[in-house]
From TrEMBL, chains A, B:
Lineage top rank: taxon: Eukaryota
Protein name, entry field: Protein phosphatase, Mg2+/Mn2+ dependent 1M
Ranges where the record places region Disordered: 1-72
One cellular-component annotation, GO: mitochondrion
Record PROSITE patterns: PPM_2 (PS51746)
PPM-type phosphatase domain residues: 71-456
CDD domains hit by this protein: PP2Cc
Originating species: Anas zonorhyncha (Eastern spot-billed duck)
An example molecular function term from Gene Ontology annotations: [pyruvate dehydrogenase (acetyl-transferring)]-phosphatase activity
Amino acid sequence: MSAEWLRWVRRGGPGERPGGSQEPGPRSPSPAPAPCYRRPRFLRGGGGGEESPRGRRAVRGTGPERPLPWGSGYAEVINAEKSEFNEDQATCCQISIRRRELGLEEDKEWLILCSTQFLTGYYWALFDGHGGPSAAVIASNYLHYCIKQKLEEVAGAITEARPPMHVSGRCVCDSDPQFVEEKHIRVEDMVVGALENAFQECDEVIGQEMEATGQTGGCTALAALYLQGKLYVANAGDSRAILVLKDTIVPMSCEFTPETERQRLQHLAFLFPKLLDGEFTRFEFPRRLKGDDVGQKVLYRDYFMEGWGYKLVEKADLKYPLVHGHGKQARLLGTLAVSRGLGDHQLKVIDTNIEVKPFLSCIPKVNVFDFALHDIKENDVLIMATDGLWDILCNKEVAHMARSFLAENRTDPHRFSELAKCLVRRARGKKIGHQWMLDDSREASYDDISVFVVPLHNRDEDC
Amino acid sequence: MSAEWLRWVRRGGPGERPGGSQEPGPRSPSPAPAPCYRRPRFLRGGGGGEESPRGRRAVRGTGPERPLPWGSGYAEVINAEKSEFNEDQATCCQISIRRRELGLEEDKEWLILCSTQFLTGYYWALFDGHGGPSAAVIASNYLHYCIKQKLEEVAGAITEARPPMHVSGRCVCDSDPQFVEEKHIRVEDMVVGALENAFQECDEVIGQEMEATGQTGGCTALAALYLQGKLYVANAGDSRAILVLKDTIVPMSCEFTPETERQRLQHLAFLFPKLLDGEFTRFEFPRRLKGDDVGQKVLYRDYFMEGWGYKLVEKADLKYPLVHGHGKQARLLGTLAVSRGLGDHQLKVIDTNIEVKPFLSCIPKVNVFDFALHDIKENDVLIMATDGLWDILCNKEVAHMARSFLAENRTDPHRFSELAKCLVRRARGKKIGHQWMLDDSREASYDDISVFVVPLHNRDEDC
C-alpha cells in the first residue's frame, strides 16, 4: 500500500454517505478496545440495541429499517462464551469505482479531480476473528477500500473488450493486442488480480495498524463482489460461499485449513527448517508418536506425498507435528485452525520464538460465476457463512432449507433476512440445561455464526 | 535409495527371465554411448532390425512374436531429425511383488529367503528424453525396480483391509486402528505413496549414474500400474494418459510445463532470489519487455496471482523471464519445455551458472481408477502417449479414432497394436517434399511419438 493512500485512509477518506448500504467510510483505524459485542454497522440502530445478548444468544438480523443492496438478508449470533468477544464481523456495501485521470495517479487530489462514478460494484464480506476481534474489525472496515483502490488502478482496462498491454492504452509494440490475446487475458482476470492484490494490501494495513496500537490477532476473510454481470468470491480461511440454484449447488469457495494446505506448509518447513526452531517435526503421522514407537516403521507423509508410506521412527519424530489433528481439531503449529487469513503478524507459538505468520497466506482463491451463462431463477441465492454454520450443516442441508423456505414464503418482503435467521437458529440450536443442542440431539454450534443470503434474480435493479 | 539396494541393482539384480514381457532385469546402469536409434527391449527381434529408419520415419510396433501383457499394443516413430537420437523410451512388464520377512528388511539375502510371489502388478511406462537419451534409457531400465522395491516395503499393508499404523502389525496404542481410520488412510494411498517415493528414488539413481558416467540430460516419465483391481497413473512431464471408455473419456494425467506450474516456479524464485543470479526476472509479462516499456504500467503476474495486474516497469523487468513463451514455446529459464521429470541434475542455463534442477520436480501426480466402480466394455482402452501425439491430436480425436478403429476390427488379434500404429501414423503425417504434413495441410509432428494402447476388458486373464 502506498503511504499516500494509507495516510488518506487514516484521515478518514471521503467520509460516510447517507444510507447504511452505501460504501461506509473507514472508521478510526485503531478500533477502541472492543466491547464484548460489536455489531456490523448496517445492524446498528435496529431492534436490540448494543447490549450483549450473551447468555441467551439471541439471533440478530437485518430489518426493514436499513435495507441492504438487492434486499440481501443477514443474521448472526454470538458464540456461547467460547471467547470474550464476538469474533465474526460483516460488511455489505456498494463500491463506486472512479476512473483515474492518466498521469494523476500519484496525486493526492485525484479524488476531487475525477469524481465521476465509473462503475458500481456490490460487496458482501464476512470475517471470522481469532485471538481477539481487532483484525476482523479492521478488515471489515478496510478490505472494501483496498478492493476499490485496486479496481480503480485497472479501471481503464476493465471496460475494454480485452485489457490493453499498457494501462495507458499506448501501443509500444504493434502486436501487443495479439500477445494479450494469446495469453487469453480477459477483463475478469484483471478483477481477480485486483482482489488478490487487495487482500495482500489489507493484510499489510492490518499489520501496520496492529503494531501501531499494540493489538494482536487475525481473521479469515470471505468477500463476494458483483461487477459487470459477474460474481467474484475471494476466500482466505474457512468460511464458505455457495450458490443455491434451482437444480444445482455451485460451491464458490474452498476452505484453507492446516489439513487442506498440509503440503504447502510442510514444503515451506522443508525449504526453511529453521522456521520450526527444532521444536516441531514437519512429518505427518496418524497420531502423536511416543517413545514406544521409536525404532518401528509407522505411517507418515512428507510434503511431496499425497499418498502414505512407512517411516522408521527416530527420536526427532516424537516432536509435535507442524500439522496435527483431524477435522475441526487440526492445528498449524499447535496454534491456528486456519492456514490463510489476514493479520497474526505478531503471533508466536506459546512459550517459543516460533512465528506462525510465515506459514500463513493472505492470498485468496477467487472463483468467478458469469451470470450471462446461467438462467437465474426467482429463488436462486448466494449463501455466505462463517464456519459456525458449516460445522453443523452441509451444503445439501443448507440448499434444502433455502429452497423450501423460499418456496413457502414467496411474498414476504423480508424473506431473505428471515432465511438467514432461520439458518443461524438451526445451527445454534436450543439451550437445554447448560448445553446448546440440535433437534436430533447432536451438539449445536458454540461458535459465532454469521450468514448472508443474497438474492440473485433482481440483481441489476439496484444498479 | 539405500546403498545396499543400489549395489544390488548394479550387480544385475535377479537376472532377466525368459519372456520379453516379464519384468526385465536391469541392464548395465551406464548405457553404452547410445546408437542413434535405441528401441525398447520388447520390440527387439521383431521385424525391422536395429538400423536407423531416420529418413523415412517408419512406424515400428509390437508384433505377434513377443506379445505384451493383456495383448497391449505399442507403436513408435523417431523424430524428423529434431535431435541426434530418438529420445522416447518405453517399458512394459509384469512386476512381481514379494513379501519381505519381518526383521530381514536390511538383509542382503532376503530375496532368496522369501522368494514366494505375493502380488502381481502390470506396468507400462513412457519416457521422453531431452539433452540426449541417457536419462530416458536409465529410467526405462530402473523405474519399475524402484516401484517394485517401494511396493515390497509396504507389502504387509497392501493386502489388509486398512493399512496398520505399524508396518509390523504390532499395536503400540490400542486406538491405532481408529487413528488410521479417522485419517481415511486406504490401501490405495500406500500404492500412491510408493509411486511417489519410487519416482524420487529413480531420480536419485539417475543423478548418481549420470554423474558417474559423465552423461547429461533428463526425461519425462509417465507410468501406469495395475494392481489389485485398480489402475494407477503417475505422471511427471508432458506425456498424457487417457481412458477411452464406451461413453466417456477419463483423463488420467495432467501436463507439468512451465506454464501449468508457473506459480510454483515463481514462488521458489521469490523465496530464493539467488537461484536467478540476477539474470532473470520472476515476473510474467505477455511478451518480453523492451526499453520503451520502462516507466509504463504493463500487464504482469507474480507468484501469488491467478489473475493479472499492471506493474510499473523498471529496468530489472527487462531481464529474461523465469517462465516465458506460450504453449509449446513456453520455457523454464529459457531452457526446458517441462517443469517435472527425472534427471537434469547437471543442467545449467547456457553461458551462466544458473542451475535448472532446483526448479524441476521429480514428484509425479498419481491418478487412480477403480475398476470395481465401472462396467468395462470390450473396446475400452487406456491410451498413453508422449507429447508427439498430443501436439497433433486432442483427447476427442484420439478417442474417436480408437472407438471407430476397434469397432471395425473386432476380430483382428493384433488390433490394439494396429491402433497404436494408426495413431502414430496419423500424428506423423506424410512426407511431402521436405515437410511432414497432415491430411488437412497442417504441419505434422516432427517429434518422437510413442503410444501404448492397453485393452482393459480382459485384464485379469493374465493374472
